[in-house]
Give the backbone structure.
Amino acid sequence: MEVIRGLINIKERHKGAIATVGNFDGVHTGHKGILSGMKRKAAESGTKTLLICFEPLPREYFDFFNAPARLTRFREKVELLDDVGIDTVLCLRFDKKTMEIPAERFVQILAQDLDVKAIYVGDDFRFGQNRSGDFAYLKDAGSRFGFEVNSFETITHEETRVSSTRIRECLQAGDFELAEKLLGHPYFISGKVFYGRQVGRTLAVPTLNVQLHRYVAPIAGVYACETEVDGESYSGVANVGVRPTFEEEMPKPVLEVHLFDFDEDVYGKNVKVIFRHKLRDEKKFGNIDELKTAIHADIESARAWFGGGH
């Protein structure tokens, strides 16, 4: 897969693709249905697939602190799209300039800058300044410029539409089994291991600290997890949250993972943490001893869960 950042980096080889536009947060089964249709169309026409997305997501640009939590960060999304078999991802920066692109200019980007052969969008798709362009507008533009415009069918699970919102609700409720069915893959967070404050080692529970930067996960609490390190999978316990016991002046979201029977130096490496079962909510403890007792209880609970045939 090739990732292109900005229209300025479009080359001749990127033109003439079968395209789609959207957030594709989570790359869930609904998205995969769309992408499968694109791939079939591309195979029939002997061309490639192109997915156009924006960073930050538009809702994050308008109101970052009240935007829905993401299911995937950009890097994770690209990894999943690569697994699906998408050829090219075009990432456009969403800012004031992008927001003010007229609908007709957006059409020109599709027809002239990218020379798309066909585009797949939802029938509720809106684009351009003040969301002035809609599916009918795009369909008419396709007739004028010579590219197909196709709407995709809604994918359902047990008669309910598959959506990122529904998956977030499952994760927040701790229903990882249903979330995995809707996603088509387990829910995970991946990132680079960095040096933390080494508090875990003083509690006899060394942890891997995974960088989240500004990412706000759709989950918070303590979980039984599996973590992939250098192609191997290890069971363990993960904490996602802001470590309230330590009363940091400006707490940042953190992912800490304790792996069972593991003692290797993995600083600087990328790991993938797959969440399997919620053990409890994050909690502020009165002192370090109470925290230590709770952590060891979490470890025993997680070992019991994995040992129970899960």
Q: What stands out?
A: The radius of gyration is 22 Å. Residues 38 and 98 are 25 Å apart (CA to CA). The mean pLDDT is 91.
